[in-house]
Design brief:
This protein has about 475 residues and is of the alpha/beta class. The chain has twelve helices and nine strands. The structure holds alpha-D-glucopyranuronic acid. Alpha-D-glucopyranuronic acid binds near residues 287, 311 and 324.
């Protein structure tokens, strides 16, 4: 009898298992199909952009996975600097040296911005639609031991010019419930899902570390602003502004679109009494590390940046041959991050033809503090830690001109050396492709700049 029961239980379990597998396979099929379609449409849009630019072919990118591949990424420092001379951030296009902060602000900085706009990240349209923020829920909860007030926000983008496209920017904000005044806030470009979440037993999450300083935290969902593939360029905020049409060669790419969304969240923070909008930090990892640097470079209201493993198209120098290169970013899987014009540097032009490089993107953040982070070559070599360090070092002269401190060295330091005494900071942690190990270092750096203020009006924080 018992035996029969056991057989039946096993049979039932097996049937359930089979159903589950079939269900999973069925669920997978549309997803695979959808991705194949996205890849096809992205390649089509990429080809269209090449046609628009009159480019017949692009040089291929590097393979980061297979050491046997003929085009395997370079990890030999002796071959990493084919173009060692960087454009000088303090020399005007007419050859004149920039000698005063005024010359920087009124002449050189606008030149650099124009080059990044036209050649690299693309232009944000002159008139972007208005965003109306709605608080969709507010709840009191605890993160660890700390009571917080969590607000779910949706930024409705006015689509009256093209109702076929809807853009609703999603942000979650948590501020310390017992704050005596408006709190500094660190906002993250969220990957969503499980990526970047603290594993059980791995210590306090980044949010808890931020809370321990008395600050709040927020997460913005980049994909609610712009999809992360070329097939989505006629949708999202870029598609809305173009009324569903394809991009022009100097139109914005996803990095600037995500950055634009972060700026709109900052607009909201300016209206929220629980937040000190003058003390908003932005943090992002990998592709969102790139978006973080772009956002902070362009919007001077951001107070500080934590730029994690941003690599090519972020803080790493385009002129370096290490890990990912220009040609990868210009390929059909990543070109949507950039302006169409960027493709030319993987086609007829070379990296050395770029009028600017990543050190000048870091310099656009000056005099505000920026922390550039990388993992070790064992797991994070693709992002080129040294290339990012050199960009941070290359921004030094601009920080000094504006009365701030550079990193204190131009020599790439041993792993885990903490360079946070200046206003542009760097650390390569010994983990892989992750923000985790550098959070404490970033927060030590950030606490020199962000401060909890006791509000004169103590009711401010509780008025929400
Ligand atoms: C790829 C890509 C990188 C990017 C990364 C990510 O590795 O080549 O440029 O930073 O994805 O965002 O995870």
């Amino acid at each position: 009898m018992d035996k029969m029961l056991a057989v039946r239980v096993i049979a039932a379990w097996f049937m359930l298992f089979l159903c589950d597998m079939a269900g999973a396979r069925q669920a997978q099929r549309p997803a695979n199909k959808r991705w194949a379609e996205i890849r096809r449409l992205s390649a089509e849009d990429h080809r269209k952009m090449m046609d628009l630019l009159g480019i017949k072919s692009l040089r291929p990118g590097r393979n980061g996975m297979n050491p046997q591949a003929a085009n395997y990424a370079n990890y030999d420092e002796a071959k990493a600097n084919p173009y060692p001379n960087l454009p000088d951030p303090l020399v005007l296009k007419n050859g004149k040296k920039v000698t005063t902060p005024e010359m920087w602000w009124t002449q050189r900085r606008p030149e650099i911005v124009e080059d990044f706009d036209r050649e690299i990240y693309g232009r944000v349209p002159k008139d972007t639609p208005k965003v109306t923020w709605e608080v969709t829920s507010t709840s009191r909860e605890k993160n660890g031991d700390v009571p917080v007030i969590t607000t779910e926000l949706v930024g409705h983008v006015d689509n009256s010019s093209y109702p076929a496209i809807t853009v609703d920017i999603q942000v979650t904000l948590s501020t310390p419930a017992d704050a005596m005044g408006p709190a500094p806030v660190i906002m993250e470009f969220g990957f969503g899902g499980w990526f970047g979440r603290a594993r059980p037993g791995s210590g306090p999450s980044w949010q808890q570390q931020v809370l321990a300083k008395g600050w709040g935290y927020a997460v913005i969902v980049p994909y609610s602003i712009q999809a992360d593939y070329g097939a989505g360029l006629n949708q999202g905020i870029i598609g809305l502004c173009n009324k569903g049409q394809s991009r022009k060669a100097d139109d914005w790419g996803a990095l600037r679109a995500w950055a634009w969304g972060a700026s709109r969240a900052l607009d909201y923070f300016e209206t929220d009494k629980s937040v000190d909008a003058n003390q908003i930090g932005l943090e992002g990892h990998s592709r969102f590390g790139k978006a973080t640097l772009v956002a902070v470079a362009y919007d001077q209201r951001f107070a500080i940046a934590y730029v994690s493993s941003s690599g090519a198209g972020g803080a790493s120098l385009f002129r370096r041959d290490w890990g990912e290169i220009v040609e990868n970013v210009a390929g059909s899987g990543e070109y949507h991050w950039m302006a169409g014009n960027f493709l030319r540097y993987a086609g007829p032009l070379t990296w050395d033809d770029l009028p600017i490089d990543a050190h000048e993107l870091v310099a656009l953040c000056a005099p505000r503090p920026v922390f550039i982070s990388s993992g070790s070559n064992n797991g994070d070599a693709w992002v080129d830690a040294k290339g990012m360090f050199l960009a941070a070092a290359g921004a030094g002269p601009v920080y000094r001109l504006l009365g701030k401190r550079d990193m204190g060295t131009t020599e790439f330091p041993p792993i885990e050396t903490t360079l946070i005494d200046g206003d542009v900071a760097f650390r390569q942690h010994s983990g892989g492709h992750t923000t985790g190990p550098n959070w404490p270092t970033f927060l030590t750096f950030a606490q020199r700049y962000l401060h909890v203020k006791q509000a004169a009006d103590k009711s401010a924080a509780s008025s929400r």
